[in-house]
Specification:
single chain; Immunoglobulin-like; globular; 11-stranded mixed β-sheet
Length: 172
């Protein structure tokens, strides 16, 4: 019995550690970077996380790099009063004000992984990435690929979108 309980506790701790996903660079703390699994034919996927700035100086997430993904952009999804959804590239990056937390989540700010070209994000996969901050510098993180829930399906799904930025507009 003692062995079974010990094995169960060890398994729980291993699972918790695998999903903890907290990373720190200077005053910046990145919590739970993740992406949802995609369809085999998906060309794009979204990446999500929380970014905390415990410092007294503003910072900006200016770039995300992943070796196997040819194009990565920082985006904002918004729906206007008429129900029209728009996605805009955040040309200057995503600001993280001193003492604030910014959540990248479906239907809002997010990382857009583009050009998957037959290499979908699969459940349980880990995507090694580098986040580049204006002040804190580079931070290696791992995006864990997770299953979508029913609530996630109600949020914007990027899997069928083509990303033509010829018509992108800056948010007003």
């Amino acid at each position: 019995m003692k062995t079974i309980v010990s094995a169960a506790i060890a398994a729980l701790l291993a699972t918790t550690a695998a999903h903890a996903g907290d990373y720190t660079a200077g005053d910046i703390k990145v919590v739970h970077p993740m992406a949802f699994e995609t369809a085999p034919t998906a060309q794009v996927a979204g990446g999500y996380m929380s970014i905390e700035n415990a410092g007294t100086t503003d910072d900006t997430l200016i770039e995300v790099r992943v070796a196997r993904i040819p194009r990565i952009e920082l985006h904002l999804s918004e729906t206007d009063a008429n129900g029209v959804a728009r996605m805009t590239r955040q040309e200057g990056g995503i600001p993280i004000a001193a003492g604030e937390t910014v959540s990248l989540q479906p239907g809002g700010l997010h990382v857009m992984f583009m050009g998957l070209d037959g290499d979908p994000f699969e459940l349980g996969e880990e995507i090694e990435a580098t986040l580049v901050f204006e002040q804190a510098g580079e931070l290696a993180v791992t995006f864990s690929v997770e299953a979508r829930s029913a609530a996630d399906h109600r949020a914007m799904d990027h899997s069928g979108h083509s990303m033509d930025h010829a018509t992108d507009k800056k948010p007003e």
